[in-house]
């Protein structure tokens, strides 16, 4: 913001973290970290009981929160206004369209003023709705509460439900009698959040997280017995792999899904013999990804095998699922990325993306005939819900765009008839004609064309004067959809251009787009985002001083990187739970996500080249003496993904090094983790706070 006077004034003195140098030598290189002490030695235990946090660390976090509050004090009225606007766009007593499954249809709803969802069911043919799980009642008296949902067994008599009441993502499972609403005595602790029922409804499989928050074991629990008696089914010895367990829609198999960011492995347990040794489908092979869905006498396999970079679909007999029996069904087409797939009695369905836009494809399993469900808007989002049953011709999907509220459809795959079930209500009103959504392309440093989705009011002047919130992520192959978002209308209605940069590291333009933004090519992600800022400024959608950049988690790493690389091109930066201490985290193999993350970033412990390229961009390691823009970092004390000390250390170092006069703010949620507040309105309060910062920086208060 070099062309503007400070917008933050009369601030108290900012907290200054003590410097306690700690040196580390790797590959002959010694680094000194002055703020390593902010990492609690007892972090594993503290995630379960925050009262044991070191008092010196707690005092520093509380001082940072007090400073942040003083800096944002003049926005408190604005925050309330923004919150009221965003809340006013939500139908408070909203309800999903129930999904049919057997004799019932299942769904979720909210009550007016309620923070948490209710899970309900009603007779398939219509009748009285019964609440199975009331989130508000379960959350009563708790500062943080998050449900993992409820999953009913085959005969619909029992349901597994899970909750996390600390934000640490260690879920406790309970079993509920769905006819009475009473919970059984079973209590299953330290799980990943769900279970996979055996067909008889008398037992289920679940994952347990170890002390380093890794899903390392799968157990088999028999209803009515203590957790200590549960049978260990499988233990994953490699800390670099995630693991999950699920059940097929046909109730014939239990899936054990083992994977990292580039390699897959599946094991199968037949439900006809729950004590059978899990059967391997295809052994893990670095770079080979595959996933299974049931298709009666075959499994359909989505895979990148044999050089199918953008994936293809194969099938294999259920009785002989090994790789040598895989046969191609939907061939690989370069540039057409198949994202997921599902099968039903007579149809194979998949969601794909080509030229940055999604479409749903349907294949008749008997004739091989294919057709697409497509839409004509310039930028839009599709969601494929599928169905709760296997023997059906009707699936469900959702559609929205930046200007079009979400629409939910049932689709008959045989007749090709669409039935509109629901259109998202905006109680305070919304006229799509008041807004413009566009997709533009920004040339990056190496000639790559970066898609940027824009939303702005039709009357917004495009002469460089409009402020802009530019959002980016760019990691793990995750694409940010151009979907309807009522929250961002609070910025757009104040004259902002809301922009999403679909940068490398995501799969917006196919798998190669992801590959070109990871490992040694990671800096392409950052340069693409800066290129988007350049384009928006040059084309007069905004100007550098009016751009507020925002990203969270791995997108927070992006924020840290662009702050170091091009601070003059951003008026402000919002970094939510930012992964900014990349080198130290990737060197610490005790942290929950470090070994599984090495395929994404590199392993600097064993690989000197990886050490150097991570050290070259890691935001914390590259903070330097320069005039940084106004910056807001947000974190959660019990966050197991991006631990609280990453943004805390980063802010301390920024404040030490920065030569400008813009404030560096840190807000730590002392009772939440990676996802922030757990309630739907509590989350809106956090977004209102972030938007108030953006509006203040843009001088639009």
Overview of the structural elements:
The chain is globular and about 70 Å long. The model has no long low-confidence stretch (mean pLDDT 94). The strands form nine sheets. The chain has an eight-stranded mixed β-sheet with strand order 31-32-34-33-35-36-37-38, with helices on both faces. The two termini are 17 Å apart. Strand 25 and strand 26 (370-373) form a beta hairpin. It has 701 residues and is α+β, with helices and mostly antiparallel strands. It has 13 helices and 38 strands.
Summed up:
The chain is of the alpha+beta class and 701 residues long. The protein is built from 13 helices and 38 strands. The chain has an eight-stranded mixed sheet, sandwiched between helices.
Give me the secondary-structure topology.
Layout: E1 22-26, E2 29-33, H1 43-48, H2 55-71, H3 76-88, E3 99-101, E4 104-109, E5 118-123, E6 130-134, H4 135-139, E7 146-152, E8 158-164, E9 171-177, E10 183-191, E11 196-197, E12 203-209, E13 215-222, E14 231-235, E15 242-247, E16 253-259, E17 264-270, E18 279-280, E19 290-294, E20 298-303, E21 312-317, E22 327-330, E23 336-343, E24 347-354, E25 357-364, E26 370-373, E27 381-386, E28 394-400, E29 407-412, E30 418-423, E31 435-443, E32 449-457, E33 468-472, H5 489-492, E34 497-501, H6 511-515, H7 523-538, E35 547-552, H8 554-565, E36 572-576, H9 582-586, H10 594-601, H11 608-617, E37 630-636, H12 645-657, E38 664-669, H13 680-697
Helix pairs in contact: 3-13, 7-8
